[in-house]
Amino acid sequence: MKNKKHDEDFFRTVYGNEELEKLKNMRKKYEAKAQDSFNTKWKLFLFNSVINKSNKPLDLELFREFRITDELVKKYTAEYWQSEREDVIAEIKIDEIYNQLKKLDLNQVLKSLCKTHYKNNFEDVFSFSDFSELNKSDKCCYCNLTIEKVKKLANKKLLFKKNERGWNLEIDRKNSNYEYSKGNCVMSCYWCNNAKTDEFTYDEFIKIGKSFEIIWEERLVK
């Protein structure tokens, strides 16, 4: 078994305390995204089981084999979440689907087992090296805003957000209904990430981001 303290001591000796702290912070971000990614897969795993009226008891193997598809995502987002409680999907009332999902989610033993397995194997979904490399991006993929420009806007008193976000770029999923992965993730500024939500597609927000970019550049020359 690896000795974590020994690894940290070795890294500190070679690279110094500052680089070690950066590595720890990056690892913390990575683990948080692993949790978010699990939540995405778990919710769709349960939904898929309910609408397909699976008689097989849910277990770790079924979770491992489960894959998210465009068809399932559309049914979950564009049908299930946009319907009235009395409406029907796959011959099941929305209200009944909701109740079944809540009941399945209460199986904390299975959920914990699947979560542990998923997080322990997250490297296969999104490697730490790819995650770290993505975080080196220096501008928002939607509006091209950089942190340097954010600081300039702040110094000019031309930012009006009322929270502590915005001083770093954030990881955004192109499609928030899929897991975090190299192909599904980009770096975004706080404003674009906050505005895109789950509603807009990546391609749609590329168009919206161009308008944001114009506004930022207009503010910068004031």
Question: Would you summarize the structure shown here?
Answer:
The chain has 222 residues and is mainly α. It is built from ten helices and four strands.
Topology:
Layout lengths: L3 H12 L1 H35 L8 H6 L4 H10 L8 E2 L2 E2 H12 L2 H13 L7 H7 L12 H9 L14 E4 L11 E4 L1 H7 L5 H19 L2
Antiparallel strand pairs: 1-2, 3-4
Helix pairs in contact: 1-2, 2-5, 2-6
Would you give an account of this structure?
This protein is mostly helical. 59% of the residues lie in helices and 5% in strands. The protein is built from ten helices and four strands. The chain has helices at 4-15, 17-51, 60-65, 70-79, 94-105, 108-120, 128-134, 147-155, 190-196, 202-220; strands spanning 88-89, 92-93, 170-173, 185-188. Helix 1 (4-15) packs across helix 2 (17-51), helix 2 packs across helix 5 and helix 2 packs across helix 6 (108-120). The longest helix has 35 residues, at 17-51. It is globular.
Low-confidence stretches: none
The strand order across the widest sheet is 1-2
Assembly form of the protein: single chain
How many domains? The number is 2
Count of individual beta strands: 4
Radius of gyration: 21 Å
Strand share of the residues? 5-15%
The H/E string reads HHHHEEHHHHEEHH
**Average pLDDT number:** 93
Query: Structural class of the secondary structure composition?
Result: mainly alpha
- Binned, the helix content reads 55-70%
Shape: globular
Distance between the termini: 58 Å
- Major β-sheet, in short? 2 strands, antiparallel
Counted by DSSP, the helix tally is 10
